Amino acid sequence: MLGLSDVGYRVNGRTVLERVNLRFKDGRDYSILGPNGAGKSTIAGILMGTLKPTEGRVILDGEEITPLGVTERAKQGISLLWQEPARYDGITVEGYLTLGGKLRVEKDEIKRVLELVGLPYELYRHRLVDRNLSGGERKRIELASLLLLKPRYAILDEPDSGLDITSGELIENVLDYFKRVGTTVVLITHHEKIAAKTDLAYFICAGRLVRRGFSREVVEYYKKTCGRCFLSGMIGNEH
Question: Which of 9, 24, 66, 201 could form an S-S bond across to 218 if both were Cys, CB 3.0 to 4.6 Å?
Answer without folding.
Answer: 201
